[in-house]
Design a protein that fits this description.
Blueprint: H1 3-129, H2 132-138, H3 142-243, H4 252-266, H5 270-281, E1 290-292, E2 300-302, E3 308-309, H6 324-335, H7 363-377, H8 386-399, H9 407-419, H10 427-448
C-alpha cells in the first residue's frame, strides 16, 4: 500500500478518535448538566419549603409571644387584685376587732344593768313584803312612802328600757360581726382563688415560654437548612455556569440564572445586564472575528476571510505608555491561551477593536476589574468565560450607577460602558440597551410567573 494512503488512513483514524472523544466528552458534560439541573430543581423546591416553614414558624412565634404578653398582663392584674383583697382583709380584721370590743363593752354594760335592776327589784320586793304598820312607822310622812315607791317603779321602768336597748345593740353588733366574718371569709376565698389563677397563669406562661424556645430552635434549624440549601444551589449554579462555555452560548434561561446570581453580588438587575451583554455579543454568541498577529503594530487578520486588518488592538504608545496589546499578552499568558489564536473584536470604521469575550472588555479595562472578580471567584478570571464576563460587566455597570435600578442611572451606565462617557453622539447605544431591557423584563416576568 502506498505510504501516502497509510498516512491518510492513520490521519483519518486519529480524526475519528478525536471526534469520538469529543462527542463522548460533550455527552458527559451534557449528562452532568442535566444531573446538576435536576438536583438544582430539587434544592430550589427544598428552599421554597424551608421558606414556608420559616414563615409559618415566625407566625407561631408571634402568636406565642402575644400569648406570653397577655399571660404576663393577667399575672400582673392578679397580683394587684390579690394585694387589694389582702388590704381589704386587713381592714375587715380591724373592723371585726373593733366590733368585738364593742360587743364586750356592751356585754359589760348589760351585766351592770342587770345588777342594778336586780337591786331595784330586790328593793321593790322588800317594800312589797312590808306591812302597812311598818311603812307608816318607818316613814315620817305617808307621802314619803308613796314618793319612794313611785321613784322605784320609775327607775325599774327606765332600767328595763335601757336593758332592752343594750340587748338590741348587742344583737346588732353580733349581726355586724357575723357579716364582717362572712365578708372576711369571702375575701379570703377570693384571695385563694386569685392565687390559684396566678399559679395557673404562671404555669401556662412557663409552658408557653418552653414552646417559644422550642419554636425558636425549630426556626433556627429551618433557617440553617435553608441557608445550606441555598449555598449548595449556588455551588451547583456555579458548576452549571462552568459547563456553559464558548462558542456554545447559554440559553436565555441559563443566562437569566447567571444574571440573577450576579445581581446578588452587585445589585445590577438581570434584565439590564442581559440587555448590555446582548448588545455587546448577543450573550456570548459573537465574541470577535479577528486575531491579533502583530504585537508591535496591533495589526491582525479577519478569522473568516483571512484578510489583513489594521488596528485590531492598540499597541504600546511612543511615550512607553502601556497599551492594550501588553495587557492582552499578559491575560492570555496567565490563562494559557495562544495570543494569536484567541478571538477579539475587529475594529469598526473608527478607533480600535480588541474587545474580549461575551462582555467585550478592552484588555486595559479588564485589568482594572480582574482582581475584584478573582476575589469573588477564588480563581484567575477569564474574560472568555460566561460567568466571569457576567460578574465583571456587572461590577463595571454597578460602579457607574446601574445598581440604583432606575432608567436614567442604567442608561448612563450603559453609555459609559460603551464609550467611557455620556456623549449624546452615542445615545443610540443607551437607547437600544434600555429598549432591550424592557423586552427582557417582560420575558423575566413570564419566567417567574408574575
Amino acid at each position: 500500500m502506498p505510504q501516502f494512503l497509510v498516512l491518510a488512513q492513520d490521519s483519518d483514524s486519529d480524526v475519528q478518535e478525536e471526534l469520538s472523544a469529543a462527542r463522548e466528552e460533550l455527552t458527559t458534560a451534557q449528562q452532568e448538566r442535566e444531573t446538576l439541573e435536576a438536583e438544582l430543581k430539587k434544592l430550589e423546591e427544598e428552599i421554597a419549603r424551608y421558606a414556608q416553614d420559616i414563615s409559618k414558624t415566625e407566625q407561631e412565634k408571634k402568636t406565642l409571644q402575644n400569648q406570653i404578653y397577655l399571660l404576663k398582663q393577667k399575672i400582673s392584674q392578679l397580683n394587684l387584685q390579690i394585694s387589694q383583697s389582702n388590704l381589704m382583709i386587713r381592714d375587715l380584721t380591724l373592723q371585726i376587732g373593733d366590733t368585738e370590743n364593742s360587743i364586750t363593752q356592751t356585754g359589760t354594760k348589760i351585766d351592770g344593768s342587770k345588777e342594778k335592776l336586780a337591786a331595784i327589784l330586790q328593793t321593790l320586793y322588800e317594800e312589797d313584803q312590808r306591812s302597812l304598820i311598818e311603812i307608816l312607822f318607818s316613814e315620817n310622812k305617808l307621802s314619803d312612802f308613796f314618793d319612794n315607791l313611785l321613784a322605784l317603779e320609775t327607775l325599774n321602768s327606765q332600767t328595763q328600757e335601757l336593758l332592752k336597748d343594750i340587748k338590741s345593740l348587742k344583737t346588732t353588733l353580733e349581726n355586724q360581726k357575723q357579716l364582717l366574718d362572712t365578708n372576711k371569709s369571702d375575701l379570703e376565698s377570693v384571695v385563694k382563688l386569685k392565687t390559684l389563677q396566678k399559679q395557673e397563669s404562671e404555669a401556662m406562661n412557663k409552658e408557653t415560654n418552653y414552646y417559644l424556645k422550642l419554636t425558636e430552635a425549630e426556626y433556627q434549624a429551618s433557617l440553617q437548612k435553608k441557608t445550606e440549601a441555598e449555598k449548595k444551589a449556588a455551588e451547583i449554579r456555579a458548576r452549571i455556569f462552568e459547563l456553559v462555555g464558548i462558542p456554545e452560548a447559554p440559553t436565555f434561561g441559563e443566562a437569566y440564572e447567571m444574571a440573577k446570581y450576579v445581581e446578588g453580588l452587585t445589585g445590577v438587575r438581570p434584565a439590564f445586564l442581559l440587555a448590555v451583554l446582548t448588545q455587546e455579543s448577543n450573550i456570548g454568541k459573537n465574541v470577535g472575528q479577528c486575531y491579533l498577529t502583530n504585537q508591535q503594530t496591533g495589526a491582525g487578520v479577519n478569522i473568516r476571510s483571512g484578510a489583513a486588518v489594521k488596528n485590531v488592538m492598540k499597541p504600546m504608545g511612543l511615550s512607553g505608555r502601556r497599551g492594550d496589546v501588553n495587557d492582552f499578552l499578559s491575560i492570555t499568558a496567565e490563562l494559557g491561551r495562544k495570543w494569536n489564536e484567541t478571538p477579539v473584536s475587529c475594529p469598526m470604521s473608527y478607533g480600535y477593536g480588541g474587545a474580549m469575550g461575551p462582555a467585550q472588555f478592552i484588555p486595559t479595562t479588564w485589568m482594572i476589574y480582574k482582581d475584584e472578580v478573582a476575589q469573588i471567584l477564588g480563581k484567575t478570571p477569564d474574560p472568555w468565560s460566561i460567568k466571569d464576563a457576567f460578574i465583571a460587566a456587572a461590577l463595571y455597570l454597578a460602579d457607574y450607577g446601574a445598581k440604583n435600578q432606575t432608567y436614567n442611572s442604567e442608561w448612563k451606565a450603559a453609555m459609559i460602558y460603551f464609550s467611557g462617557s455620556t456623549n449624546l453622539a452615542y445615545r443610540f447605544y443607551g437607547d437600544s440597551v434600555m429598549k432591550i431591557t424592557a423586552t427582557y423584563q417582560e420575558d423575566i416576568k413570564q419566567i417567574e410567573g408574575n
